[in-house]
Design goal:
Two copies of one chain form a homodimer. Chain A contains seven helices and two strands; from the N terminus they run αααββαααα. Helices cover 51% and strands 5% of the residues of chain A. In chain A, a hairpin with a 5-residue loop joins strand 1 and strand 2. In chain A, helix 4 crosses helix 5. Chain A is elongated, with a radius of gyration of 21 Å. Chain A has a two-stranded antiparallel ribbon. By secondary structure, chain A is mainly alpha-helical. Chains A and B meet through helix 1, helix 2, helix 5, helix 6 and helix 7 of A and helix 1, helix 2, helix 5, helix 6 and helix 7 of B. The structure holds a DNA duplex.
Amino acid sequence: MKLNEGIEWGLHCLAVLAGLPSGATMPTKTLAEFHGLSESYLAKHLQALSNAQLIESVPGPRGGYRLLRPVEEITLLDVVQAIDGPEPLFRCMDIRFQGPCGGDPKTETSACGIHRAMLRADRAWRDSLRSQTIADIVHQYKQTTNISQRAKREQWLEARTRPASR
Amino acid sequence: MKLNEGIEWGLHCLAVLAGLPSGATMPTKTLAEFHGLSESYLAKHLQALSNAQLIESVPGPRGGYRLLRPVEEITLLDVVQAIDGPEPLFRCMDIRFQGPCGGDPKTETSACGIHRAMLRADRAWRDSLRSQTIADIVHQYKQTTNISQRAKREQWLEARTRPASR
DNA sequence: GGATGAATACTCGGATATTTATTGTCCGAGTCATCCTGG
DNA sequence: CCAGGATGACTCGGACAATAAATATCCGAGTATTCATCC
């Protein structure tokens, strides 16, 4: 099992977008260059975030992406579900209904114990993701990174930020 | 992302092995037939459980597998890790070190905020899995399944159980 | 009849194909800024 | 000099390959049983 790598990319990009002035945008090309990523592939993930209504796209020259909600209202779960899909980690194949002693789906209505147990763990995972937002990520970044590094970064990004269209 | 299907198989098989008399074994072939699964592929997963010291194999005719620990001491996490591997769900690629403003791995020692956040969720998942055992699964099965269904099942299994070697 | 030995059938174990999911890339549709032309 | 329109460059969006992982299978190594043979 392997969690989609695009989740890390998406979170980093959202953290960058979170630092932009209100209404300003940044294109895929810049985001990819900043993080040293493949532009084409990053585009795929940003598209997923766009479909999930976490960011919105502005087409045409000087266009790009920008956040569609306040950073405090974008949880890690939103990002994970947007990029990786809504399905739970564990998918029960209901093998208890197979074989010579398999139960009858019509009479056994309650979910199987294994399914429920795995779902419980799944819920714990999702609850943890839901309790953390992009705002937390950004806040933590500011606390753990030295000032010169941050200044360099902000300068680079600011030079490539595209203000809200007039 | 997709969680290994073998986990469901392994859990069901462990639940069956848990019902066997002390020291008795059951071969892959029987376990596969009982659950309506591919024998060859199930063998692969049982092997993983064997490598993880959750079950042990008895070779030769009338051989098979049996539990190596009490059911209360086999957690769902043990099974997941045995079959799916020990790696966490999220693997940080440290893309914060990439790109023109990438930090220096030597000076930035603390883990990145995104990594830590995802690890926190990972821990919640694992904690939940660790808190549940095969014993819980078996107990729940007995409570939610009607008596005739259970009897049929136990009879089928008992006829194919191989007692501890004399 | 009992013990001994070889043959045998059955088990697990790891190495090997096939299918599915993830990763990575490309080109077309649409849009806004720019530039050119005319008033 | 200003307004309008055509042009063009840049953006996203979805369709299309390449790679890695999960799924499925097969055959060999080893062992306890079984059967035949000999004492």
